[in-house]
């Protein structure tokens, strides 16, 4: 995807160089024509002073900000490989509204409940109309075919009460990537109004499950953060577990019983090839990437004793990081790569420990009642998510020092949290008592806005990749 | 016979992959071996017939049980498990060319990765006891299934007790 770096006029296809002077000059000079102006890189704030229009991320689920999302008009409906630009304008509007709704911070008014805007209106909204719809915020935009096979999607956010523009962005994409442009637009709006980093334009790897409880078929699968573009990667002949996207999305590390034994493979998304991480005859499991994508953590059992190892992704000599007689398993790097949080039963039950990335200075951080497992360091660095087992299995967070423990869910069995790329949303899987099926769920960091992510079949072991570039 | 079956499975895999994914792995996984898809439960299909001596069916009829159970979060072989493994060791002594896989399992009330490690522990505990009874280590292999292959499907103490197990499967 390319963000636009020059003025793009939807009618003529003419490209003008921007006057690199910032917000006001763009507004003054560029907008006189009916042209929609698209800015890249610049997260523009066209109205500096008031900045009242925000959403409170610590109150997710309240959905208090009403935001209108009319269909994106097109200057001339043209056929692309993904349908007409007019149709794309409808679908992009739907994806933006769906993303914002899922965040729990917005109450979108979709295109079916509002008028169809014209291209002229994109940069000159009829604010009284939107006030009449009780909208506090308004997203407008356009879709234009560029003539070179690509499309440009413009995205504008307005404060309806003040009648002012808050931000604008534009994206040039292949028509097939229209959903990504929609996610990028939703991300821009989410970020502008919440002050948080974006997360919609990201992908999820997980395990798709079917079949009887005693012999589940488990397939590696991937999808966009909203469940779209779903794709099965393995055919289910071998049980697949615990996938993790590499930070660049090019590879997926996961466990497979391909040769009858549990082993970690690295699957190349581009080529479809995969390889063993180590040639060891021992069981290897619980793969985790380092933040720079150069190393993998894995757990290996030798004679019943499990320890954590680190190995260069391209192969090489594994480094053993733990050496106790207990089960040391899992592990998750801090975002700066300097520390690792992991799980160990060296003290009896499962608890959380932190060590330096070279294995030194191992210390326990969980001291509440019950057992703690599956720690995952937030991409923001400030929290560690975990599964707490005390009666029910619940998802919780604590600081890297172990303080401030908070439990976010309460169900029979919630397990294996992983983080959204912005560290605001936690994803996990839920299994009911006596149930065969499990499903993928998301919950806000505050514990509110708990909701199920629809998958084609049952799902488990979800893990989020970073925000796409 | 087995190779024919594997070939058929491979062909099925090709079709399945072609149907479901645009970029399916060109390297097709081999058909799952016996450790993957069989033998999780007692096979009584030969009851009433005379099992071939030295076969898995024979093993199942001759030994006290093909499995030992473990307490919650434990992996020590208890007295009952020792008696069972002694009967297995006797059978293995009678057929010294037979090899066996010991499958380690955990109940569903644990996290996935930890349960894989726990299954390894349990399978190794059973293996080590068999070795202490004179079975050559070279004849025994372990594989952990964690909580992936429960034998009892309930979400209750009785089911979980049956699922915390190490199962010996001889290789025909």
From TrEMBL, chain B:
Domain of life: Bacteria
Pfam families per record: OmpA
The keyword Hydrolase appears for this protein: no
Annotated compartments: Cell outer membrane
Occurrences of domain OmpA-like (ranges): 57-172
Annotated membrane topology: Lipid-anchor
InterPro entries in alphabetical order: Bact_OuterMem_StrucFunc, OMP_bac, OmpA-like, OMPA-like_CS, OmpA-like_sf, Pal, Pal_lipo_C
Secretion signal span: 1-21
Presence of the UniProt keyword Phosphoprotein in the record: no
Residues that span the membrane, as ranges: none
Record function comment: Part of the Tol-Pal system, which plays a role in outer membrane invagination during cell division and is important for maintaining outer membrane integrity.
Subunit structure of this chain's protein: The Tol-Pal system is composed of five core proteins: the inner membrane proteins TolA, TolQ and TolR, the periplasmic protein TolB and the outer membrane protein Pal. They form a network linking the inner and outer membranes and the peptidoglycan layer.
Family recorded in the similarity comment: Belongs to the Pal lipoprotein family.
Name of the protein described by the UniProt record: Peptidoglycan-associated lipoprotein
Organism: Blastomonas aquatica
Lineage: Bacteria, Pseudomonadati, Pseudomonadota, Alphaproteobacteria, Sphingomonadales
